[in-house]
Amino acid sequence: MTGFLGEYEATLDAKGRFLLPAGFKKQLAAEAGGQFVINRGFEKCLSLYPMNEWQPIFERISKLNDFDPKVREFRRYFLNGATILELDSAGRLLVPKNLLSYANMEKDIVLAAASNKIEIWDKGKYQEFFENFSPGAFSDLAQQVMGGGDNNISI
Predict the structure, then answer these.
(1) Rounded to two decimals, what is the model's pTM?
(2) Where is each SpoVT-AbrB domain found (predicted)?
(3) CA-closest candidate to residue 1, choices 32, 34, 28
(4) What is the residue range of 68's domain?
(5) In 45-71, which positions are buried (b, 16+ CB within 10 angstroms) versus exposed (e)?
(6) Residue 28 within a domain
(7) Torsion of CA 62, 44, 52, 115, to 10 degrees
(8) 49 pLDDT exceeds 60?
(9) Counting beta carbons within 10 angstroms of the beta carbon of residue 81, is it exposed (0 to 12), middle (13 to 18) or buried (19 or more)?
(10) Edge to edge, what strands does the sheet with 7-11 contain?
(11) Distance (Å, whole) CA 47 – CA 49
């Protein structure tokens, strides 16, 4: 299988480390080699990419036109703070303090599958996100994203 499925809770220790859930470890491709890149997500969460998923994204970003101010702005935002992480001998990852601060994470976190990456959320913010998202809004979003044109599939 390509990508990730699942949602797990974890706890940050005093140093900002968390144990990568066994459910995600089992889904890691061998070519990831226990290395990841973590960076800012789009909704005040963090995005954790296995190295094998990060490399093609980085290559694509590297080929963008540097003469375009929007490209430079995007690169700055997307790549600044991006950090290589490696699982330690206990299976933990250390989140840089600047990224913990960006995502307002202190202790309880949620790791949620997001296709080829794992989103890491402060638990309270994650719960709030879903409490404020109604089934009707989800249905409308599904129709907009999956229901028209080339994306027309049945789920």
Answers:
(1) 0.88
(2) 7-53, 82-125
(3) 28
(4) 7-124
(5) bbbbbbbbbbeebeeeeeeeeeeeeee
(6) yes
(7) -120
(8) yes
(9) middle
(10) 7-11, 108-114, 117-122, 46-50, 35-40, 83-86
(11) 6
